[in-house]
Amino acid sequence: QRCLSLIKSTKFLNAYITVAEETALKQAEESEKRYRRGQPLGVLDGIPIAVKDNFNTAGIETTCASNMLKGYISPYNATVVQKLLDQGAVLLGKTNLDEFAMGSGSTDGVFGPVRNPWSYSRQYKEKSVPKSHSEDKDSNWVITGGSSGGSAAAVSSFTCFAALGSDTGGSTRNPAAHCGVVGLKPTYGLISRHGLIPLVNSMDVPGILTRCVDDAAVVLGSLAGHDPKDSTTIQDNFKLFELPNLTDVSKLSIGIPKEYHAPGLSSEILALWSKAADLFKNAGAKVIEVSLPHTRYSIVCYHVLCTAEVASNMARFDGLEYGHRSDMNKSTESMYAATRREGFNAVVRGRILSGNYFLLKQNYENYFIKAQKVRRLIANDFVKVFGSGVDILLTPTTLSDAVPYTEFIKEDNRTRSAQDDILTQAANMAGLPAINVPTALSERGLPVGLQFIGRSFQEKQLLTVAKWFEKQVKFPTIQLEEVKRHDHGVFQHQKSGNLKQISKP
């Protein structure tokens, strides 16, 4: 109930597209009965969660923030959603995103942009002085990053304890960094994609957003493992793990990839990155500079592969079986064309056009096949580095802290995505696990995160190191002025974002 009332009082953030109040309260009642009987379904029983609106949910609308799917209600649950419900989690609603998850600002969905909760925090307000009296104090709000901005804002503003995002080129880690939360992109194939509306099948992974690393591990434990409905998931059973409290990091080898000192990286983030490396060094870990030489080709390679797969995936939205259908009835072809023109925004149409261009018979070898070869080289760079004894890579997650919305929309979606994915998408191309850990506040009072990239399927090691780092940096809690007036109670337990602490009856 407290989460639901907070969703109402933070409606201005536009984090949710659909709030499933009735079903959530029903699920919460059932959960309470189980607790009274002493028979919870799992660690997540009774925990309020939110899900990005590109995961199918039976009985609750799934829109992908697009006119194409407005009003679409899926007949089934995505596997990850089903697994959460089987654990007794309470589904509060579906969160906002860029249309079909194409974007890095959560500004391009048909339901409007998501606002970063930190825009309304005391930390940001104290640092940001309006340039002039005429400047509306409401106009300097900053973006959440994307495309899972709704989920990141929901976790950051305390309206839920964990949320699902999706991560194709950084769509979970990028908004996690801008909203000061933990964002985990698991190894490709560790979590089922069944029921996640696909963007790029060979890179998409459901992502996990929480307020601390321990929580991400708890949610991962509930979601990971083989799914007969997704042939790309691992065959082995996933071994559940408790995250140990690391006290000795002297056996660790941390790699600092020099290519991630990318053009446009703010001096503030560079300094923070160096400071984090020193933190490990001073604690006894081995910190070495490493090279991932093909990094500089990765964003171009990603663009070709991403648009090609998008073009293929978007072909299913033709107005025949589900979703929007145009009234144009001159011919089947004109109905297809009109449906797709009305249903998709310019960003989606642009990616479909690019992708189809790369897939033309005369271009296929030069673009698509070549990009696949470069992708292999990028993946091999990581294999070599991890083979040389490096355990974890430490990199920035974003080039800067969150920019004001008015600033962000000066560039088009494609330019922004190319800039913002630069530090995150290589992990998707190589299928590796990566996590954003909130590290500090920038000079403007906004969150900055750093990224850890681990070896394939070594989530336990990655999360253990991330947890150690989280403990050292002591990232501050957001002080939400606007919300405090509405609901004082929720701030009694805001520090214990930890699911384990709150899931005990």
TrEMBL record:
Reactions catalysed according to its record: L-glutamyl-tRNA(Gln) + L-glutamine + ATP + H2O = L-glutaminyl-tRNA(Gln) + L-glutamate + ADP + phosphate + H(+)
Record-listed E.C. numbers: 6.3.5.7
SUPFAM superfamilies: Amidase signature (AS) enzymes
UniProt keyword annotations, A-Z: ATP-binding, Ligase, Mitochondrion, Nucleotide-binding, Protein biosynthesis
Domain Amidase positions: 9-463
One GO cellular component term noted in the UniProt record for this chain: mitochondrion
Cell compartment(s), UniProt: Mitochondrion
Protein family: Belongs to the amidase family. GatA subfamily.
Function: Allows the formation of correctly charged Gln-tRNA(Gln) through the transamidation of misacylated Glu-tRNA(Gln) in the mitochondria. The reaction takes place in the presence of glutamine and ATP through an activated gamma-phospho-Glu-tRNA(Gln).
Subunit structure, interactors included: Subunit of the heterotrimeric GatCAB amidotransferase (AdT) complex, composed of A (QRSL1), B (GATB) and C (GATC) subunits.
Designated name of the protein: Glutamyl-tRNA(Gln) amidotransferase subunit A, mitochondrial
Source organism of this protein record: Otus sunia
Source organism phylogeny: Eukaryota, Metazoa, Chordata, Craniata, Vertebrata
